[in-house]
Amino acid sequence: QVQLVESGGGLVQPGGSLRLSCAASGVTLDVLDIGWFRQAPGKERGGVSCLSRRGPSASYADSVKGRFTISRDNAKNVVFLQMSSLKPEDTAVYYCVARIGSWGICPPLPHEYDYWGQGTQVTVSS
Question: How confident is the model at residue 102 (pLDDT cuts 50, 70, 90)?
């Protein structure tokens, strides 16, 4: 059974940084498309970043390019999202998502992912 467990959310001031972690169990990262979605209050879930099984390049939403970096530690089976220069509009619940990879690019829509973590709250506020 595949499980994804996020950690690392919290309250940070604008301009600050946070690192989210997603620990996967029941499967190894090398067979997954894995990444992050987020959902702000009153808004739909949107993709943030993803690493495809095909690798090696990551994809990013335009709103986070240059500020967020996704990476993974295959030995520990953990994916990270390093978030810098955070803005109030980054406030959301962040979800780790995954699916068994198809050797293509990461799919853009939430329903295309089979596995979801419980979510971790990120609040950017002064």
Answer: confident
